[in-house]
Amino acid sequence: MLERIRLENLHNKVTTAEEAAKIIKDGMVIGSSGFTKAGDSKAVLAALAERGKNENLKITLMTGASLGHGTDGKLAEANVIKKRMPFQVDPILRNKINAGDILFIDQHLSESAELLHAKNLQQLDVAVIEAAYIERDGSIVPTTSVGNSVTFAAMAKKVIIEINTQVPEDVYGIHDIYQAEDYPFRNVIPIVAPWNKIGRRSIPVDPEKIEAIVFTDIKDSPADIAKPDHKTIAIANHLLHFFENEVALGRLTDRLLPIQAGIGKVANAVLTGFKDSNFYDLTMFSEVLQDSTFDLIDAGKLSFASASSITVSKECYDRVFDNLQKYREKIVLRPQNISNTPGLIRRLGIIAINTAIEFDIYGNVNSTHISGTKIMNGIGGSGDFARNAYLSIFVTQAASKENKISHVLPMVSHTDHTEHDVDILVTDVGLADLRGLAPRERAQKIIDNCVHPDYKEELQSYFDRACERGGHTPHLLEEAFSWHLRLAEKGIMKK
Questions:
Q1: Is 263 part of any known ligand binding site?
Q2: Assessment of whether the complete model's pTM goes beyond 0.85
């Protein structure tokens, strides 16, 4: 195993996860690798959670995105986390956040590293970073994600490295490690196509800061991949027909433009739909490479994919890493403040496809909160892409829970993406193209195309009566949240 530490004077830093966890003290700010369950700490943070069961220990924890193996939940249950940012998906942690026991900062994923570099956040005390191996210069070769690890390694006072022997050493070369200059000396990021590589292949680390090295042999938590159902298939078909029409109108070609898709079953179904389409030589500039990414590569539909992590099912994980030579020239993993940087999204003309919890008749989107107060996961990178994309698309089912809940409403209970950042809305019922429409036109288009039949008449009535009252964006404020109130009181949004 010591062959994975190519800087020999670091060999004496090898220790157990329990000993490494002792470096972390009460009140510290910790930065951990990990982006949507990929490339995360699998031993040290788990050991910290065990320690927290017997000690009064509170930390602020920053990551790239969510952690795997229930680590967030273990830390939350042990009352180790005081504050968490910028994203999470764990149900135990979520419940603690919504109860007010843990503070949560929901951030655009492109911004966390920028805020650290600008010294707008507390300085990092310790970084915990997963690596495939350590280079002779002390730099680390990441595993299945890059996330915020470049910034964490640079800015933390101390660094703990987890070397994961499950990840083959020939993962070297799939990463593009680039750190933009601090303001006011920021230069142009010279990426003009998804396949451009502009940085180095390992994360620079000052060897003097490396306090401990822990070996692990644990794969990433597998992604939860749900098979496409009739609703997600319908959404995918509406989108594919839309793209075909855009090609027919001369706005796009059969190669489209680089695609970004949020994580989850809807996005996976949409991407899977491209397999049987006439589109070809597709590219991706996104945050996460999912099963559908590699399915499209295997089908000859996708020629290159750029992201910050690989988050896939167990079957797909084995397929990729057992055949890494097949994929290595077709993928790249970058720091998330590069994969999600607004300027590149605008320059490359990204087609962004993200998931909504609900949207309203004017096109405002809630992607984070249930009934306006209880957070689900976080905004993730959807805001980075929505505001800057060539096409900003949001998808959701028209109704759920035996149609007791409508996902198209008079007014959203929480706004993550305003109508100004939304071009296309899609449900299993249909698609609304909102480009070039004034608020009243947008509302009628959404009612006509996206609303479940059980709610269409009432939503039309709301809009008609609001128009009679007047206004550029007509509303009946006394009724705007009545659907949410009915759900809270009666368990159903219908009258």
A1: yes
A2: yes
